[in-house]
Amino acid sequence: MRPTWDSYFLEITQVVASRSTCLRRPVGALIIKDKRILATGYNGAPSGLAHCRETGCLREARGIPSGERQELCRALHAEQNAMLQAAMYGVPIQGATIYCTTHPCVMCAKMLINAGMKEVVVLDAYPDRLAEELLAEAGILVRCLALGRGTSCG
């Protein structure tokens, strides 16, 4: 059976996430417009720098809970890397949809708002209420599709 567009794109985000070098939460993102993939991103250290798999996880070492103190991390988030990839290659993303394996954090939510995203589609929740509130206030539709994985985004 042929997958729906949502299933198709979310399955691709999982493959993109497999490139992640994060030790705690591999995340993948895909920016889509008119059913076409514009950019992809996964979480990992900036280009040319040592990955967390080589240096260890600073957040883990300090016992920092998920959803807190994101600035204490070597990695860029998947959403950030997807937006940066689009910018590097001159691909306009205003009015696009971003598919993510995990709901964006507040920092990524603010960037998605300013990038002009119209929709966010996610597989899993993330403990960041402010991100949810800002996306709602900006009028960006957020949809959670667990795809039969037995998980919840609410």
**In angstroms, what separates the terminal alpha carbons?**
29 Å
Helix tally equals: 6
From the alpha-carbon coordinates, what is the Rg to the nearest angstrom?
15 Å
Outline? globular
Biggest sheet: strands, sense, closure?
A: 5 strands, mixed
Content of β-strand: 15-25%
Q: Write down the secondary-structure element order.
A: HEEHHHEHEHE
Placed side by side, the strands forming the largest sheet appear as 2-1-3-4-5
Task: Report on the architecture of this protein.
The protein is α/β, with parallel strands linked by helices and 154 residues long. The chain is built from 6 helices and 5 strands. Strand 3, helix 5 (106-115) and strand 4 form a beta-alpha-beta unit. Helix 5 packs parallel to helix 6 (129-137).
Question: How are the SSEs placed, and which strands pair?
Answer:
Layout: H1 5-17, E1 28-33, E2 36-42, H2 52-55, H3 58-61, H4 78-88, E3 97-102, H5 106-115, E4 119-124, H6 129-137, E5 141-144
Parallel strand pairs: 3-4, 4-5
Antiparallel strand pairs: 1-2, 1-3
